[in-house]
Amino acid sequence: MTKRRNDRSQERRREAAVDWWMRRRVGSLGAAEQDAFIVWRADPANAAAYDNIEGLCAHLATLPPPVEAPAFYVRPRVWLLAAAPLAAACLAILAGWGDLVIFLRSDHYAGTGQTRIVSLEDGSRVQLDARSAIALRYGATERRIELLAGEAWFEVAPDAGRPFVVAAAGGEIRALGTAFDVALDASGARVAVAEHSVRVTSGGTDVVVAEGERSAFHADAQASPPEPVKSAWVGAWRRGKLIVENAPLRDVIAALGRHHHGFVGCVSEAICARAVTGVFGTQDPLQSLEALETALGLRLTFFSRFVAVFRE
What we know:
single chain; alpha+beta; Phage tail protein beta-alpha-beta fold; Jelly Rolls; 3 domains; seven-stranded mixed beta sheet; seven-stranded antiparallel beta sheet; 19 strands; 34% helix; globular
């Protein structure tokens, strides 16, 4: 019985250490929180647990970054480990690792839970969704922007001598008019046009997407035939809404995750592939995740304030 109580005490201590580490990593603590942290850390056992987490993270920081962003599902072996708060912290670290790589490559970046409007030198404007980034490649004959992560709304200033091109997911979107939205997800890129039209080049072919239409593409594959899209759906994230129809849960998690500090995943690929239809708010992502939990009959398990997993 004593051993069981000791084990549970150590588990709670580790949970608290993970929680404090993540809270300090996300942003500066308020005065009251900082005082509470100092009091908590004054216990040598608590300090040892916290130093263990901090040491692990320092070690991870010395490793080369992953080539690809972490998957949105948690493989079974990792799921077993995720019962330990320390492993849960590692998932959160890996989730943020790719963000750091994107940030270093970008010219403009919007952080978690933020949106940002960028005014370009030619008069064009780009609005970035949360955890979204672009790199500028403006030249004498072409205005090229690479969408590195997330989603962006483009309002293009006319310049006949310098076409406006957005590179994303191995393809290109050439503006033939004014306003359009481009989003990256696990399967590639999606484009929706609000005004005039764009030409999508992917897989060696061109597809013209007109006002009120959308298309999707991925590297080395032809873009899907344009289909109608409701005007209210185009750039809905700019109004704090995520509108989806038969979208895989992984894409919904990814979109909401841009507004949530931490990691949200699935216990299996099958769960992440479940179709979702609905309207979700981005200003309170946890509330939207709980709505998904109810709608899909799943359980959303939290291992700390910053790590959660969908499971049956």
